[in-house]
Write a structure and sequence with these properties.
Layout: H1 9-30, E1 35-44, E2 56-57, E3 62-69, E4 75-82, E5 88-93, E6 100-108, E7 123-125, E8 139-141, E9 145-148, H2 156-167
Parallel strand pairs: 1-8, 1-9
Antiparallel strand pairs: 1-2, 1-5, 3-4, 3-6, 6-7
The chain binds 2-acetamido-2-deoxy-beta-D-glucopyranose.
């Protein structure tokens, strides 16, 4: 039994439809309501909770953007991206997320020596709605998020002491 030549047609049709859907999705991502969440991932070798002169960006790290409704409930969105050679990631979000809490969350470090996370410090909130008065042309900057070294560097005590002295006068 040989198949008639037109048996290939349904497959071609499916491929054409898939291509059209992909094109539409790409257009939607760059259209109104689309956001780019961007931010930097760095290593905090002293577990300071802020950047010091020994912190450095971590390329090749995975970050996800996760959204949940204010009232709790299941995750509504999850999209991932990897940091570039300067430690910056860009996650494209194709819709408005009003009434949702969205966060950029560390997933995996690009540096095995600096790959620990701490609960609540492994994330940064980003508003993903165009109705909050922010005019940032679809780009939302998340605060830098840090991975920690398991063993702090030997001179961390000394370094942090310097930062404490600098910060001492009336830190808000
Ligand atoms: C960081 O700052 C400390 C304290 O000021 C200094 O002793 C150290 O050499 C600096 N380290 C680097 C890598 O710049």
């Amino acid at each position: 039994m040989t198949r008639p030549p037109f048996a290939a047609t349904p497959l071609l049709l499916v491929l054409a439809v898939l291509a059209a859907v992909a094109a539409l999705a790409a257009a939607a991502a760059s259209g109104p309501g689309g956001f780019v969440v961007t931010g930097r991932v760095y290593c905090d070798p002293c577990r300071a909770g802020f950047e010091t002169n020994v912190s450095s960006s971590i390329p090749g790290s995975t970050v996800s953007v996760e959204c949940r409704h204010f009232g709790g409930g299941p995750e509504r969105l999850k999209a991932e991206a990897t940091t570039d050679e300067r430690g910056w990631y860009k996650v494209e979000i194709d819709q408005d997320h009003q009434e949702e809490i969205c966060e950029a969350v560390l997933v995996k470090s690009g540096d095995p020596k600096c790959s620990e996370t701490e609960q609540f410090r492994d994330r940064s909130r980003v508003p993903l709605t165009s109705n909050n008065g922010l005019k940032q042309n679809g780009v939302r900057y998340a605060n830098p998020i840090a991975f920690f070294r398991k063993e702090p560097l030997a001179d961390c005590g000394f370094i942090l002491q310097k930062y404490d002295l600098k910060d001492a006068p009336e830190t808000p």
